[in-house]
From TrEMBL:
Gene3D superfamilies: P-loop containing nucleotide triphosphate hydrolases (3.40.50.300)
Protein name: Cobalamin biosynthesis protein CobW
Residue ranges constituting the CobW C-terminal domain according to the UniProt record: 225-315
Superkingdom, natural source: Bacteria
Species whose genome carries this gene: Nocardioides flavescens
Matches recorded under SMART domains: CobW_C
C-alpha cells in the first residue's frame, strides 16, 4: 500500500497523501500528511473507541475536506488503515451532498502481495494475528476483508508478478468491466485513476450481497481459478443451515451472497465467507425485490465436488410445511438478533 501511494505521488506531482494508522492497544489514530516536498503533518489523536467508523467520522473525512478546501493540490491520495475497506469512506463521501460539491472519488485502488495473495484470500489468518485489526473486538479474517476490497476496487495492483492461479482468482473476484490491473507498482498508470474511473453505483452493485443478473463466463484471463454460482427462489432451512454451515462456508475459497429463511421472510440475510470463516448478518429488507438465495463461490484449482448438492440439501424442500415456521426463536439470534416478524 505504501509503495503504491508513493508511486502515485510521483506520477501526480499536484497530489497530497494522507495516511491513517490505528493503534488499537493505545486507542490512538495517527495521521500523516505529505506531498512531494515532504511530511507536512504528523498528528496523533486519542479515540474514545478505536474503530474504523470512528476514524472515518472523526478524522479521515474532516482531513480530506480540509485539504481539498485549501485548493493547494489537485488530488488527495487517501491511504486508509490496512484493515479498513474503502466502501465505508466512499459511501460517506457519496451521500453527503455538501461534500459532493467539493470532492469526488476518482478511483479505489487495492494493493496486494503477489506471492501470498492466494493464501491471503483463501487462508484462515485473522487480521488481529497480523496486527492489522481495527478494533479490539475485530475478529475478521484476512480473506474476508481482502476479497471485499478486490471486489469493490477500480484498480488492483500487485507488488510483483502473481502466479497464474493468483491472477485468475483476482480477476474472478474483481468487477468484470472497467478494472485496471497492474503487476508491479511501477506498472500502475495514474492517468486513468483521476479520470472518473470510480462509479459508486457500479461498484456498489457488484459488491452488494444482493447481486443481480448473470455472471459473465470465465475467460482465458481467469486460468487457474474457478467460480460456482448457486441460486434458488427457495429459503434455506434454518435448522439444517445452522447444523451444516460448513458445507458451503468451510474450505479454502471465497463465498458470498444473500439468503433468506422462513422464520425471517422479510429480511435479506448476508453471507460473507473466505478461508473457512463465515460471517452472516442482517443486510436489510427486500424492498420489493424477489426473495432469492444466491451464493457465489470462487477459488483456485478445481472446484470442490458436490457443491450444488450441498446447496440443495440446505434449501427448504417442496414437501415441508410453511406453517411450522411461526416461531419466536430459530437459533440465529446471536448473529441476526431476535425475530421481529413471522411468516
Amino acid at each position: 500500500m505504501a509503495a503504491t501511494v508513493v508511486g502515485l505521488q510521483f506520477d501526480l506531482p499536484a497530489a497530497v497523501a494522507v495516511r491513517h494508522h490505528i493503534d488499537v492497544e493505545r486507542q490512538v489514530l495517527t495521521r500523516t500528511v505529505s506531498d512531494v516536498s515532504g511530511v507536512l503533518e504528523h498528528v496523533e489523536t486519542t479515540l474514545e473507541h478505536a474503530c474504523i467508523s470512528c476514524a472515518i467520522r472523526e478524522d479521515i473525512v474532516p482531513t480530506v475536506e480540509r485539504l481539498a478546501r485549501l485548493r493547494r493540490w489537485q488530488s488527495v491520495l487517501v491511504h486508509l488503515p490496512v484493515g479498513a475497506e474503502a466502501y465505508n469512506l466512499c459511501s460517506a463521501l457519496n451521500w453527503d451532498t455538501r461534500l459532493a460539491r467539493l470532492l469526488r472519488v476518482s478511483a479505489v485502488v487495492t494493493a496486494v502481495r503477489a506471492g501470498t495473495v492466494v493464501d491471503d484470500l483463501t487462508g484462515e489468518a485473522l487480521l488481529a494475528e497480523r496486527g492489522h485489526h481495527c478494533a479490539r473486538d475485530d475478529r475478521r479474517g484476512v480473506g474476508e476483508v481482502l476479497a471485499a476490497m478486490v471486489e469493490y476496487a477500480d484498480a488492483v495492483v500487485c507488488d510483483g508478478v502473481p502466479s497464474t492461479p493468483a491472477r485468475g482468482l483476482l480477476r474472478v473476484l474483481a468487477r468484470p468491466q472497467g478494472v485496471v490491473f497492474a503487476e508491479g507498482t511501477h506498472e500502475l498508470d495514474a492517468a486513468p485513476l483521476v479520470d472518473r474511473l470510480h462509479v459508486h453505483a457500479r461498484s456498489d452493485a457488484w459488491s452488494s450481497p444482493v447481486r443481480e443478473g448473470d455472471l459473465p463466463r470465465l475467460g482465458p484471463e481467469t486460468e487457474g481459478a474457478w467460480r460456482v454460482d448457486l441460486r434458488s427462489s427457495r429459503a434455506f432451512h434454518p435448522e439444517r443451515l445452522l447444523e451444516s454451515l460448513e458445507v458451503l462456508g468451510g474450505g479454502a475459497h471465497r463465498s458470498r451472497g444473500c439468503f433468506w429463511i422462513p422464520t425471517r421472510p422479510g429480511r435479506v440475510l448476508e453471507w460473507d465467507g473466505a478461508g473457512g470463516q463465515l460471517s452472516i448478518g442482517d443486510w436489510g429488507t427486500w424492498h420489493g425485490r424477489t426473495r432469492l438465495t444466491r451464493i457465489v463461490l470462487a477459488g483456485v484449482g478445481v472446484a470442490p465436488a458436490r457443491l450444488a448438492d450441498a446447496f440443495e440439501s440446505l434449501l427448504v424442500r417442496p414437501g415441508e410445511q410453511d406453517g411450522r415456521w411461526c416461531t419466536v426463536e430459530d437459533g440465529f439470534e446471536p448473529w441476526l438478533g431476535p425475530i421481529e416478524e413471522v411468516a
